[in-house]
Design a protein that fits this description.
- The complex is a heterodimer of chains A (394) and B (446).
- Chain A is built from 18 helices and 1 strand.
- With 394 residues, chain A is an all-alpha fold.
- In chain A, helix 14 packs parallel to helix 17.
- The longest helix of chain A is centred in the first third of the chain and has 34 residues.
- Among the domains of chain B are: 131 residues, Rossmann fold; 78 residues, no CATH class.
- In chain B, the strands form 4 sheets. Chain B has a 6-stranded mixed beta sheet with strand order 1-13-12-11-14-10.
- The chains are: A mainly alpha (394), B alpha/beta (446).
- Chains A and B meet through strand 1, helix 3 and helix 18 of A and strand 20, helix 11 and helix 12 of B.
Chain lengths: 394, 446
């Protein structure tokens, strides 16, 4: 430990004002504070401070993402090997998964870190820990076949336009990871939607690919005719509820397993990092909208209407979005009452987009981005109601 | 006696709670008055270096209102007057004679208090140099002697860590407290006496208490009580005085001498024996800090509480308004991978550490435990605010220059408890910013 400390002390003078590399001080500071909590003491009122800092706060989200990440690597490799006729034993599957996923993650962090350092250097403030979370969330929402240059462009858009132009961490209106993903979705639709992108087929034996459909459950549900049951259609494709809940189906890299997403959400609620109101509101929103559609279902209504609402939770990226994307504290509202409304509307809007919009099989991304725009308004209304009840002190 | 529940707040799990025994400190060789530490006043010196003073002779007055005087805490000679930047008077140091002379004041017999005119009482308090013991909400300046408050709130104890317990400073002088309350009744019809549930009350002061505020810190703060009981904006301008200060006031009025004794607390993990001490105003901190061989480096001397006190030095003195000395480690050492440790011994309001599993008290230091970052609207500050302010939104209004909006958020209700600053993971100095905004507003309107 002292050795590392001595190394930092030795090179510090180059980065301090007046040194050769003084412009890169934020980079040095970020690296040093990764190893050591800085030894500042309080200078103004409140002489003691809580032990929790923002680094730990953000790191908890990473801890909660570890399980979806690992499973996502496994699932990506599994689907890839399955549809390519390769071995589905655990070691080849994990290796294939790592080969597919690691480059995307590395590119995301590298490019994101580059932009963060540049902005921190120009604006002369420390590099904030927001990138740790954004850089892990963004790859998990992408299809495994995405070209790496698109990953770089996407995360650049997300970090720069989604966060930095507003002033950096703490000032963005939109979720940066989702902004990047939405950009890729609209700019390169051929790589971001459609059946072939969700499974990374390689060295395929000709017959194997034709025999199985690589469609995601959501895409299958979209194709179901009116009057048919989506659940039976999914069962025919070997997607039982348990399999959907567990996450072993083609989809984005890390967002398929609703089970792990809810476990991660549970961990974040337990340690008080994520707001349980947003998560519960989202779940209630999805279930309510699904139930409402069930009530309106008739003989000739679309197949979506009759779908068991719980299926909506486990198909697609809804669970992932609600657990990790919607709970980003900066883009979410700050008042407890508005957090309930925000979560509920995200859930309900996701169902509406999935069911009624022919262009988008998945609605969670757009629902979250849309409600992000309303965070400030929801807070404004709730705060105004609250302040009207105060006895003025002026 | 009404019971009011304070639901929000946080009891700091800081170890080093003082024992209830009261030790006597040895008589110091010199004392000092600290004009710099009385908030808002502009002191005008009435003594020069070398002049002889008595206990109760005038030292300085406030330029804003010369009737408000501050008197000498000791009899002897003024050896040094220390000035700071821009001629701020930091210390008036008085070397004490072996036999200190004192000035007498006209006492009011208990039976006459009911009959005397209010303006006479006010004049007595002003001449006795104790008007500065009153604080007016919401700005914490001393009140205008010609004004009439909506109420006077006496707070007998406080839940801020390491403040004197009523048992220690009252010490069976309940009659004096009673007399003090009768004096207050002459100043204002409505007098509230508030306690918390921290100490088991003795029968005598239980009879005097009008409100008990239960719940976590800052339950004992008079501003919190006022927030809960006020009915309209007319109730806002209340005066407050602490229980011990009321005893001093009563001592002056009934017995006719300037009271120089204080019961204070010396505590914190930086001192080996946290305890109550009877001492006098202006005592040098080295006299009361306990073990004099304890290394001074790496320790912070905080005069006042951990949330509201100011940073002092080991060779400084205890001021007129402070009743505790907290000594804590400075906390400026670096910890490797600190953010990733399980944290069984790291106290936190959040549940992000293993320390959340136990309610044990931990030693705390003055470290920031992190770096300053932007506000991420986590809402922890709003969770602990006892007067239901939204500190994150109020702070942002202030930084944006929106004074009206900040006032509508209840900026003036803020009691400066410091909990919002304590829990903030982005290490923003919310308390300091809100306080500065309040002071700026006060200077504008007065």
């Amino acid at each position: 430990m002292h050795f590392i400390q001595k190394q930092f002390d030795k090179y510090r003078k180059h980065f301090e004002p007046g040194g050769r590399l003084s412009l890169l001080y934020p980079f040095f500071d970020a690296t040093e504070t990764f190893f050591f909590i800085p030894g500042h003491s309080t200078q103004q009122d409140a002489h003691v401070r809580d032990s929790l800092d923002l680094k730990r706060y953000m790191s908890f989200v990473l801890v909660a993402l570890a399980a979806p990440l690992l499973f996502g690597i496994y699932n990506t490799g599994y689907q890839s090997n399955l549809f390519s006729g390769q071995s589905t034993a655990i070691i080849p599957v994990m290796l294939r998964g790592l080969r597919l996923v690691l480059p995307i993650i590395l590119v995301t962090y590298a490019v994101g870190f580059f932009w963060e350092t540049m902005f921190a250097t120009i604006r002369k403030h420390p590099i904030s820990e927001g990138l740790l979370v954004t850089g892990m969330l963004f790859p998990l929402t992408l299809p495994p076949t995405i070209p790496l240059w698109q990953v770089a462009v996407g995360i650049s858009f997300g970090v720069v336009i989604g966060k930095e132009i507003f002033g950096g961490t703490g000032r963005n209106i939109l979720n940066p990871a989702l902004t990047g993903r939405a950009f890729l979705f609209f700019a390169y639709p051929g790589n971001m939607s459609g059946d072939p992108v969700w499974v990374a087929v390689h060295q395929a034996k000709e017959t194997v690919v034709d025999a199985m459909s690589m469609a995601t459950p959501l895409a299958m549900a979209k194709l179901t005719g009116p009057g048919d049951s989506i659940e039976t259609m999914l069962m025919q494709a070997d997607y039982s509820f348990m399999k959907l809940f567990g996450g072993l189906y083609p989809g984005s890299i890390g967002a398929t397993s609703a089970l792990l997403c809810f476990l991660g959400a549970g961990l974040l609620i337990l340690v008080g990092i994520a707001s349980f109101r947003i998560i519960l509101g989202g779940v209630i929103g999805i279930l309510s909208a699904g139930l409402l559609l069930n009530l309106l279902a008739g003989e000739s209504s679309p197949a979506w209407f009759g779908l068991n609402p719980v299926y909506h939770l486990v198909m697609g990226g809804a669970a992932f979005g609600i657990a990790y994307m919607a709970t980003d504290p900066v883009s979410a509202p700050g008042m407890n009452a508005s957090r309930w409304i925000y979560g509920f509307c995200i859930g309900a809007l996701t169902i509406l987009i999935r069911v009624f919009n022919p262009a988008f099989p998945e609605g969670i991304m757009l629902a979250i981005l849309f409600m992000n725009l309303f965070s400030a308004l929801l807070d404004y209304i709730v705060i105004k109601i609250r302040l009207n009840k105060r006895i003025p002190n002026v | 006696m009404k019971t009011i529940r304070n639901r929000k707040g946080y009891d700091l799990p800081i170890s080093g709670e003082p024992s209830q025994d009261v030790a006597a400190s040895i008589r110091p060789g010199r004392v000092a008055a600290l004009p710099e530490r009385i908030p808002f006043i502009k002191p005008r010196l009435q003594v020069k270096e070398g002049e002889a003073v008595q206990i109760g002779s005038i030292l300085y007055e406030d330029k804003r209102n010369p009737a408000v005087k501050f008197l000498s805490p000791g009899g002897g000679h003024v050896t040094k007057i220390r000035f700071g930047k821009r001629r701020v008077i930091k210390e008036i140091i008085i070397d004490l004679d072996s036999q200190e002379k004192k000035i007498g004041f006209n006492p009011w017999p208990t039976s006459e208090i009911g009959a005397v005119k209010r303006s006479e009482l006010v004049k007595s308090i002003l001449n006795g140099g104790l008007w500065g013991l009153f604080r007016e909400l919401p700005f914490n300046d001393y009140p205008d002697p010609d004004s009439l408050p909506s109420a006077i709130i006496v707070s007998l104890d406080s839940k801020e860590p390491f403040q004197p317990s009523p048992k220690a400073y009252l010490d069976a002088r309940h009659d004096l407290l009673n007399d003090g309350i009768r004096v207050l009744n002459r100043l204002c019809q409505t007098v509230y006496v508030t306690t918390t549930d921290k100490y088991a009350p003795s029968q005598q002061w239980k009879n005097l208490t009008t409100h008990q505020v239960t719940g976590p810190y800052p339950a004992g703060d008079p501003g919190v009580l006022l927030y809960h009981i006020k009915k309209s904006s007319k109730d806002n301008r209340a005066w407050t005085i602490s229980g011990q200060n009321l005893l001093l006031l009563a001592d002056l009025m009934i017995n006719g001498h300037y009271p120089i004794e204080r019961t204070i607390v010396v505590a914190g993990s930086g001192t080996p024996t946290p305890q109550h001490i009877t001492t006098r105003i202006g005592v040098p901190l080295t006299q009361i800090a306990g073990n004099s061989e304890t290394a001074v480096t790496g320790k912070r001397y905080i005069a006042g509480g951990v949330f509201n006190g100011y940073r002092s030095r080991a060779d400084a003195y205890l001021g007129f308004l402070e009743t505790s000395l907290t000594i804590l480690p400075e906390g400026d050492s670096r910890e490797m991978f600190g953010f990733a440790r399980p944290g069984l011994k790291k106290p936190s309001h959040s549940r992000a550490f293993l320390s959340a599993l136990s309610t044990a008290q931990q030693p705390m230091d003055c470290g920031m435990h992190g770096e300053l970052r932007a506000c991420v609207n986590c809402g922890y500050c709003a969770d602990v605010c006892a007067v239901d302010i939204l500190p994150q939104f109020t702070l942002k209004s202030i930084l944006a220059g929106e004074v009206e909006e900040a006032l509508a958020h209840g900026l003036l209700d803020c009691v400066s408890c410091g909990l919002c600053t304590y829990v903030c993971p982005s290490k923003i100095d919310i308390q300091a910013q809100l306080k500065a905004a309040k002071e700026a507003y006060y200077k504008e309107i007065s």
